Amino acid sequence: xxxxxxxxxxxxxxxxxxxxxxxxxxxxxxxxxxxxxxxxxxxxxxxxxxxxxxxxxxxxxxxxxxxxxxxxxxxxxxxxxxxxxxxxxxxxxxxxxxxxxxxxxxxxxxxxxxxxxxxxxxxxxxxxxxxxxxxxxxxxxxxxxxxxxxxxxxxxxxxxxxxxxxxxxxxxxxxxxxxxxxxxxxxxxxxxxxxxxxxxxxxxxxxxxxxxxxxxxxxxxxxxxxxxxxxxxxxxxxxxxxxxxxxxxxxxxxxxxxxxxxxxxxxxxxxxxxxxxxxxxxxxxxxxxxxxxxxxxxxxxxxxxxxxxxxxxxxxxx
Length: 318
Description:
By secondary structure, this protein is mainly alpha-helical. It has a single domain (33-64, 85-317), classed as MetI-like (MetI-like fold, Orthogonal Bundle), CATH 1.10.3720. It has 14 helices and no strands. The protein has helices at 17-22, 25-31, 34-51, 53-56, 98-134, 136-150, 154-168, 174-188, 192-205, 209-216, 221-229, 234-257, 269-277, 286-312. Helix 5 (98-134) packs antiparallel against helix 6 (136-150) and helix 10 packs antiparallel against helix 11 (221-229). It is globular.
């Protein structure tokens, strides 16, 4: 009697990395959150519009050679009485296309926002790790500095830092360094939230078994903080960074609106709003409405996305 050959089972095809990500709990939560999807779509469209502004904008609003003062105060969608040109969102007092100024101004706002949040995150995470892991007088000094800074509104701290930094900058370089000074001011005014959260998480993580094991095998404190503790504190840091991005963009707009932010040669959304509010009661409503609406949509969408991210990364809510 001949034994019937047994066919070995076919090996299971491993799912692709994309499929594993798509079917993860994180993506499942995203797919079932309509507000998060809509917010992500709005943020993505606005960021891509700003990045590709030179390709999308019909005009370069900051090129004096392309401006025509006769196009000033042209209403949205209407032909100018003198030149016959039509602009989808109208023009401002200098004849600049409002749609183009929004795209270019949004580039400045997003650049300042991302750079300021990165600086605040770098400072806050570093100080939070050191305070939580080292402890003692180091922790006391860092946290007391953070407590003192929290007693002042962030916008006032940013204005103070901006004024000091601009004052020590040589006058010939002030316009060139204005954006970097603005980033420094907002970043130094927003590091406290990162430091407090990371310090609290580090206090919990440093007493766990994997950190104790790393100490026993002779790992240095720097390596332990960088390779063992830091990856476990990134979830709350990511949530804070998302929400702080919206706050940084609003802070930049506030400073620019007050005339202490982006230079006139590189106006951001806040500068455009300041220009528009001068003509709000004279009938040229579009100069203020469209930049303000863009800023509102951008900040609100990032905030809603941050709220969803906070819930999605919270293990207690799973």
